[in-house]
Amino acid sequence: MEYHNPVLLHPTVEGLAIRPNGIYVDVTFGGGGHSKEILARLGAAGKLFAFDQDEDALANTLPDERFTLIHENFRYIKRFLRFHNIKSVDGILADLGVSSHQFDVAERGFSTRFDAELDMRMSKRTELSAYKVVNEYDAENLTRVFYDYGELNNAPALARTIIEAREYEVIKNTAQLKEVLSRYLPAHKSHKILAQIYQAIRIEVNQEMEVLKEFLLQALEILNPGGRLSVLSYHSLEDRLVKRFMKNGLFEGEPERDFFGNFSVPFKSIGKLIVPDQQEIKINNRARSAKLRIAEKV
């Protein structure tokens, strides 16, 4: 089984405009597809650092003296690059979301296709799991998770139903969760709604939105002027953050303008939004929601 089939592989790496002797970072190593492509374009003096918090990804490390794999969450990119005496880099690549491998390993609990324990942790070293979210969160927090991260308008009802059900029995696995919420899963769109519910819980478990914000702020700080940021996102919440940050360096609101109505921006956009073509989607169905944005630090 292939660990992960990289989406938009060539456009994502080409967006970095790699210089042979530059220093680059792949913050979502996974199966190493993007990293291999970056290394193929680097010269002998170039360096590539990669991050992955998932223990399973460590088996894919690349035997190349120019390459260093860091087993950490990319929210700590600045700290661990400094540990390796790297203060600035020429390009950063991020392929957000869940890898094919994580979806395909049933016991990880990411996929709606399998019955599994409620886990959904991208790193087994973290304490918060789907089990804790479902069984320990109060109504207010469950509602927040489903509304903010699943964009589910019936979030209060979903939260209330879970809390009522767990008074009688602990919800241990995905099969129980589906059963508890079955009244909200009409046959014609059960898969779509389940995917939104799973996405909401997964984002909360892995603090994905907070991690993305922390990463983007640090990426701006450590990129050299002219350095590139190439980011693949898979749902509107991620893409919205990336788009806004690349546009004006903020996650919400508008930047302050000077007396003449001008404001300085940290990035300039490179090209237009890139999405997979039908041929790639046919080969890799998980590519269907991908959006690639590329920006250059001013």
Q: What does this 3D model show about the protein?
A:
Mean pLDDT is 91; it is low at 100-110. The chain is α/β, with parallel strands linked by helices. Strands 3-2-1-4-5-7-6 form a seven-stranded mixed beta sheet, sandwiched between helices. It has helices at residues 9-14, 33-41, 77-83, 100-104, 130-136, 139-150, 155-166, 174-180, 190-206, 208-222, 236-248, 278-283; strands spanning 23-26, 47-51, 67-70, 89-95, 223-233, 267-269, 291-297. The longest helix has 17 residues, at 190-206. Helix 6 (139-150) packs across helix 7 (155-166), helix 6 crosses helix 9 and helix 10 (208-222) runs parallel beside helix 11. The radius of gyration is 20 Å and the shape is globular.
Summarize the structure.
With 298 residues, this protein is α/β, with parallel strands linked by helices. The chain has helices spanning 9-14, 33-41, 77-83, 100-104, 130-136, 139-150, 155-166, 174-180, 190-206, 208-222, 236-248, 278-283, and strands at residues 23-26, 47-51, 67-70, 89-95, 223-233, 267-269, 291-297.
Helical content band: 25-40%
Number of strands: 7
Major pleated sheet:
7 strands, mixed
Measured between the Cα atoms of the first and last residue, the distance is: 42 Å
Structural class: alpha/beta
What general outline do the C-alpha atoms trace?
globular
Radius of gyration: 20 Å
Mean pLDDT: 91
Number of helices: 12
Q: What's the arrangement of strands in the largest beta sheet?
A: 3-2-1-4-5-7-6
Q: What is the strand content?
A: 5-15%
